[in-house]
Amino acid sequence: MSKPVVRLRGVVSLIGRFPALAGADFAVSEGEVVLLQGPNGAGKSTLLRVCAGLASVHNGTGEVFGFDLTTRSGQREVRRRVGLLSHATALYDELTVEDNVRFWAAAANADVGAADAAMDRLGVGGRLRSIRVAGLSAGQRRRTSLAVLVARRPMLWLLDEPHAGLDAEGRDLIDELVHQAVGQGATAIVASHELDRVDSLATRTVHVVGGQAMEVRGPGQAGAG
Amino acid sequence: MTTEISPEPASKTTTMTDAVTSTGSKVTRVLGALSLVSIALLLAFGLLVSPPEIAQGDSVRLFYIHVPSAIVCLYIAFSITLVGSIIYLRNQSTFWDLMAGAAAEVGVVFLGFTLVTGMLWGKPTWGTYWTWDPRLTSTAVSFVLYLGYLAVRRLDMDPVARSKRAAILGIISFANLIIIRYSVAWWRSLHQGQTLDPRDTQLDNTMLFSFVLGVLALTMTFAWLVIHRFRIAWLEHQLEAQQLELAIAERTSQGPTGLAHGGA
Amino acid sequence: MIEHARLIAAKDLKIEWSSRVLTAQVIPFGVLVLVLFGFGIPPDRRVLASEGGASRSLLEQASPGLFWLAVLFSLLLALNRSFAVEAADGNLDALRLAGFDPAGVFLGKSGAIVCELLVLELVVGTGAFLLYGPPLHDALQLCAVVVTTTLAMSFAGTLYGALGAGLRLRDTLVPLLVLPVLAPVLLAATRATESALFGPSSEGWAWVGFLGAFALLYLGAGILSFGSLLEES
Amino acid sequence: MGWEYVVPGYLIVFGVLAIYAVSLIRRGRRLSEQLPPEKRRFLD
Question: Which one, of B103, B112, B79, lies nearest residue B230 by Cα?
Answer without folding.
Answer: B103
